[in-house]
Design a protein that fits this description.
By secondary structure, this protein is mostly helical. Helices cover 56% and strands 5% of the residues. It has a three-stranded antiparallel sheet, covered by helices on one side. A two-stranded antiparallel ribbon has the order 1-2. Helix 8 crosses helix 11. The protein is elongated.
Length: 304
């Protein structure tokens, strides 16, 4: 049974119903989906070469490269080591048919598009494939200070508590603190993990004296993994019944700083939402000295 026949067997409509789409008819008929030729074979050496291509040519971060390669490895496990336009659609349809999380589908499709369009130069294989719409899940209710304190006290160790307080007091993204430079004299924290070619902006933020106390306890070593964060937060959730995530703490920081009278432009800067071009043009307004003055004047606190 060919790949097309397998696909049609999966999606064949009940007797009496029209085919699902004109696209299925195109597959079943004589319209070729691979106008440029046959399939390409994916090997370990090809994936290594693709990783270097992403790093050097496309200037992607290590995290992005790892995600792309993991998606392609999943493809080869499920579809074999050859890839073409037809097999791509069979694979993607399987996940669409399972109603997987749109973010997961987007991850798969992004990797496939970069591999085929940019690396293989087979843009015609993927040019009609669209990304699914992702509905934003807005955080409509933030935890109160009392709930935050209870959650904090339920965390299992000092490193977990230090990282929790960093999220609360700095406004940094979930993974930014793991490889950040901490200046213990000025209480400044600068993310390093985005590098110069990241699509994310980051500049500098600060942490309060409450956080400083716990950072001293762990020797300012905040190296941790996202798995550890999830495990620590789950322990606190099981004890308190309050669900809190790093993203919620980032949003809590924004709301708390707004309530303390800090301008939106400075909050955006602390949170890494200010483009580098603006930082360069208005350096006087966004200098580390000025930002520290703004931060310290707000006097953000979780325990008072």
């Amino acid at each position: 049974m060919t790949v097309v026949e397998s696909f049609l067997e999966i999606v064949a409509p009940p007797i009496g119903l029209e085919p699902m789409t004109d696209w299925l008819t195109a597959i079943k008929g004589s319209i070729p989906l691979n106008p440029s030729g046959g399939a390409f074979t994916i090997t370990d050496s090809v994936l290594d070469s693709f990783g270097m291509f992403c790093r050097v040519d496309l200037q992607r971060s290590n995290k992005t490269i790892k995600m792309h390669i993991n998606a392609l490895r999943r493809y080869t496990r499920e579809m074999g080591n050859t890839i073409d336009a037809t097999k791509i659609r069979v694979w993607l349809f399987k996940y669409r048919n399972k109603n997987v999380n749109p973010r997961t589908y987007r991850w798969f499709l992004c990797a496939i598009k970069v591999f085929c369009r940019d690396y293989l130069k087979r843009a015609e294989w993927v040019q009609t494939l669209k990304f699914p719409r992702i509905d934003l899940k807005l955080i409509t209710q933030l935890p109160s200070k009392e709930e935050l304190r209870q959650f904090f006290n339920a965390l299992p160790q000092d490193k977990a508590k230090a990282i929790f307080l960093l999220y609360c007091s700095s406004g940094l993204r979930k993974s930014e603190i793991f490889d950040a430079t901490i200046n213990s004299e000025t209480r400044a924290i600068t993310p390093n993990n985005h590098e110069q070619y990241s699509t994310k902006n980051s500049y500098i933020s600060f942490y309060n004296k409450e956080t400083e106390e716990y950072l001293k306890r762990i020797g300012f070593n905040v190296n941790a993994s996202e798995i550890s964060i999830r495990r620590w937060f789950k322990i606190a959730y099981n004890k308190t019944g309050t669900k809190i995530t790093p993203q919620m703490l980032r949003q809590w920081f924004c709301v708390a700083m707004t309530d303390l009278g800090v301008s939106d432009r400075y909050i955006d800067c602390f949170c890494g939402r200010t483009p580098h071009s603006i930082l360069a043009r208005h350096y006087t307004d966004y200098s580390p000295k000025k930002l520290k003055e703004v931060y310290d004047k707000a006097n953000l606190s979780l325990f008072s």
